[in-house]
Design a protein that fits this description.
Length: 189
């Protein structure tokens, strides 16, 4: 179907986000998507000093990351909420690139241990993806009380999420296809 860059937002030692991200990865793969799993914990990127396009000699790791971002047809950030915003790891990972994101949709997944499921982080991330040229789809996918939704091994406990995710992914796929068709006709720049 599509190539999707799934970007993990947490690098904490006991992060719930990896459970959410792995569940979303499996769900996307079950719908025949290719998933580029981007984990800033594995990347261990330094704080941004210069964007990829400004580098004279990027590392192989950054070249590989750039290829995944550029090749993706859609983006799915999986973001925690830290102090009403996304994590620094998420923002740092995203900011290495710009043109690579252009004219492809994003679909934001957020989570928190609280009742609101990270919606403040999702709203902040909407602004970032709009600026990157990868506008977010209208829906987002908040996961409230994340510690009660997955067990310690990352297995989904609350089956209601399997039903909810269908509509969210249907919408994302619609936007991926719409953007794909328009890119065939060219882009404004």
């Amino acid at each position: 179907m599509a190539r999707i860059a799934l970007i993990v937002g947490s690098v904490r030692e006991k992060r719930h986000g990896i459970k959410v991200a792995r569940w979303m990865e499996g769900t996307l793969k079950s719908r025949n998507h290719t998933v580029y799993f981007i984990d800033p914990l594995e990347l261990n990127l330094p704080l941004l000093n210069e964007m990829y396009k400004e580098m004279s000699n990027p590392t192989e790791q950054l070249k590989d990351l750039r290829n995944k971002i550029k090749d993706a047809e859609g983006y799915m950030p999986v973001t925690p909420e830290y102090n009403r915003s996304m994590s620094a790891a998420m923002k740092n990972t995203l900011d290495y690139f710009l043109e690579e994101y252009y004219f492809k949709p994003s679909a934001i997944v957020s989570y928190s241990p609280g009742f609101f499921g990270g919606i403040n982080a999702a709203q902040q991330l909407r602004l970032v993806f709009a600026e990157l040229g990868a506008p977010p789809i209208p829906s987002s996918f908040p996961i409230s009380r994340v510690n009660e939704v997955f067990d310690d091994n990352g297995k989904l406990i609350d089956e209601g999420y399997n039903k909810r995710v269908v509509r969210f992914l249907d919408e994302f796929e619609w936007y991926i296809e719409a953007f794909r068709n328009q890119r065939k006709n060219g882009t404004p720049y």
